[in-house]
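Sanity check. The docking grid for iron/sulfur cluster depends on where the pocket ends up, so I'm generating a full predicted complex first rather than guessing from homology. Inputs follow.
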Amino acid sequence: MVLMTGDQYIESLRKRKIVVYLFGERVENPVDHPIIRPSINSVAMTYDIAHDPKYEDLATATSHLTGEKVNRFLHIHQSTQDLVKKVKLLRVLGQKTGVCFQRCVGMDALNALSIVTYEMDQKLGTEYHKRFLEYLKYVQSNDLMCCGAMTDPKGDRSLRPSQQADPDLYLRIVERRDDGIVVRGAKVHITGAVNSHEIIVMPTRTMREKDRDYAVSFAIPSDAEGVFFIYGRQSCDLRKLEGMEMDLGNPRYSGQEAMIIFDDVFVPWERVFMAGEYEFAWPLVEYFSAYHRQSYGGCKTGIGDVLIGAASTVAEYHGVAGSSHIRDKIVEMAHLNETLYACGIACSAEGYRTPSGTYMVDILLSNVCKLNVTRFPYEISRLAEDIAGGLMVTMPSEKDFKHPEIGKYVEKYLKGVEGVPTEHRLRILRLIENICMGLGAVGYRTESMHGAGSPQAQKIMIERLLDIDFRRGLAKTLAGIGEEAKKPS
Ligand code: SF4
Ligand code: FE
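Predicted complex below; grid placement will be based on this.
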């Protein structure tokens, strides 16, 4: 059983014949590309942490299939403790990288598939679960990075997949063969796509009978024939090419999203986990979303910890750390951040065993967790920007700071408290800029809004799971209207 180190993971990526486009050009060597590499470093941290004795219990687990030690990102949750450890692990990784480290989508896809393939086999007599377990063994034993590809381009949102003017706007099966299927379509905003060994594809919404060809789930290597990637831009990405690492704020790490194009891609049957069973498309989406909404209670709180630390540090450098309104703002940031964490832990502790043996989170609470994530990081960022001050967005570049003639003026006039080098003050301000509005903001802000589903998707789930009749019964009983409170269903 392999437990790769970060360096081994990076080397393993070089062996792929992956097709990537960035700024209109084919990237021959994505691993060493200055725009892509920081996002690879973030994934590498998920490998390195599995070798750190301090985090062994969080970062590794025992495979329920083989009994071998595996990286937790490839583990199928066997208890509520596993669910709790997942959230704790993601928080630590958010703290260590300050960005999206990309590997959780594949973990959440594997866990959702472990449940839904079992349910399909029970109901339909198919063999998807057996196939899935073979695939799981393969990725576990090779310690692979899997990305989860769910979101389709969707075209006209008012139309179902089969009603679109262009039938390829949702990924679909275009041919069924004796040895497998051929698929065509695209998946958009796919986290960590270019840094993956494997792509796990899932449908993105409910499907009806006419959408049968769109109810498809499978896994393929990221360098499979017919697959290519178009890299997504991030705010301030060109700073990575300017040779001024100070101006990046978080020079070593970044997140990554890309479009994946499937241009008539062949998938052998042993890697197909759903092919036309349209009534199981929604359960797969629901399970995956519940897991990924739980994930955000971990990763975003880890990044929040970095931002709280940066805001507190810069307050000290400005000479205002002791002021009561600054202390109050830091407490407010911590309160919001810990509330997110509390939701992540709560939906895990309240998880339950599904008939497949896999543990699922409490779905209502994981949706509450994610709905809070669509709001609180914005408020935490607002408070950090308030404490940082305008200098965060008006200060000169690293080249000015290090310039042989004008550098001394930047040094002199941008100094804060005595005893703290100007460079430290500028660096911490750049880190806040990174998380709130630069490269890191993709992961901390917009992804908090739309990743794992936009806020309305969580509201729909909360309304569905609320059991309003039970609550009405409580109220009516106390008000003497005479109705006994029903037990929650
Ligand atoms: Fe993991 Fe968070 Fe990135 Fe999703 S957004 S892949 S949970 S780090
Ligand atoms: Fe995400």
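Relevant for the grid: The first strand starts at residue 20 and ends at 22.
Also worth noting: Residues 134 and 270 are 9 Å apart (CA to CA).
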